[in-house]
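Lecture 7 notes: from sequence to structure.
We start with the chain below.
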Amino acid sequence: MSAVLRRRGAAEAGAIFVKVDHLDGRATLYEPAPQSIAAAAQPGVERLFSRAHKEPSIDSQQAEERLKREIAFDPDLWIVEVERGVAGAWLDLAP
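Predicted structure tokens for the same chain:
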């Protein structure tokens, strides 16, 4: 497993998106959990993420298109990309 910071956003305000590339044309994309869920996080959990799609994975190109739309909406966002990672195993995920 390897990870790379693909896009550096604003240190004080940028949302973080995590793309897990399964290296088979599929990807899993995680976005910040909604504020209402994040506010109820357990003590010690700084950020919660949720999968940005209903399916366990999506076509990698779909993930890239979603990221482009998010950048157009919020140019301060960060993108971390992980290759061959177990999707979400190391993220704090919203219930």
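Points to note: The helical segments are 35-38, 60-73. The mean pLDDT is 86.
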